[in-house]
Amino acid sequence: MSDLVPADTTEDVRTRGAGVSRQVAVLPVGSFEQHGAYLPLATDTLVACAVAREIAGAYPVHLLPPVTISCSHEHAAWPGTVSISSVTLHAVVRDIAASLRGSGVEALVVVNGHGGNYVLGNVVQESSARGERMALFPAAEDWEAARERAGVVTSLLTDMHAGEIETSILLHAHPEMLRPGYETSDFVADDRRHLLTLGMSGYTDSGVIGRPSLGSAEKGKELLASLADSFGAYFSMLTSDA
């Protein structure tokens, strides 16, 4: 259960906060949406939590429980998918940040596990413009560095959904969650210019866009390790006095 819900007590948080110049909280944001026939609906939440746990193992951050339902409207054609509006997600993250500041945690990093959560970029931009300390992680550059380090073959363009990266992270972090079929479910659709209008169903029948057959637990481990290394620059930026 601690994989998704932190086991900290209030004293753990107090002790950690006493040892840092500025407290940083980490909020995983996932989704509840189709990931083909072999990955669970909670895949993005599991990925975001895996990244956040890796970060918490390397830096003195306040790890929060995940936001598990977000903006998955492009997946609405598949059973099981659930969404909230972008306005609601914006408000949830904004309210969490305000609550944290009220308790002395000045900085928030949103660890996004779902590419469709475009509004998170707006939340961070608006908060930063108000002088609040907030960041969105990982950036595309962080994923690219992780992809190269882990030996992920598929490009970030091709590895769009339920592909090599997500399959690899779950094979490492939650192998019990995978069902048979990822080995034979590769599907490529690199030209997705009308995705916002047509949704995923306009490009894939299976719900998969990527090459999950190339996934491995070893790649998943290296992906997470690389992302933890990349997080160092974010931590330094948010805790500096500049």
Task: Characterise this structure.
The protein is α/β, with parallel strands linked by helices and 242 residues long. 42% of the residues lie in helices and 8% in strands. It has eight helices and four strands; from the N terminus they run H-E-H-E-H-E-H-E-H-H-H-H. The chain has helices at 10-18, 43-58, 86-102, 119-129, 140-150, 164-173, 195-198, 217-239, and strands at residues 24-29, 62-63, 107-112, 133-137. It has a four-stranded parallel β-sheet, sandwiched between helices. Helix 4 links the parallel strand 3 and strand 4 (133-137). The protein is globular. It starts with 9 loop residues before the first helix and ends with a helix. The mean pLDDT is 96.
Please supply descriptive tags for the structure shown above:
alpha/beta, single chain, 242 residues, 4-stranded parallel β-sheet
Low-confidence stretches are: none
Number of strands: 4
- Global mean pLDDT: 96
Structure class: alpha/beta
Specify the helix fraction band: 40-55%
Radius of gyration: 18 Å
* Anisotropy-based shape: globular
What is the distance, rounded to the nearest whole angstrom, between the alpha carbons of the first and last residues?
38 Å
Describe the structure concisely.
With 242 residues, this protein is of the alpha/beta class.
Question: How is the topology of this model organized?
Answer:
Blueprint: H1 10-18, E1 24-29, H2 43-58, E2 62-63, H3 86-102, E3 107-112, H4 119-129, E4 133-137, H5 140-150, H6 164-173, H7 195-198, H8 217-239
Parallel strand pairs: 1-2, 1-3, 3-4
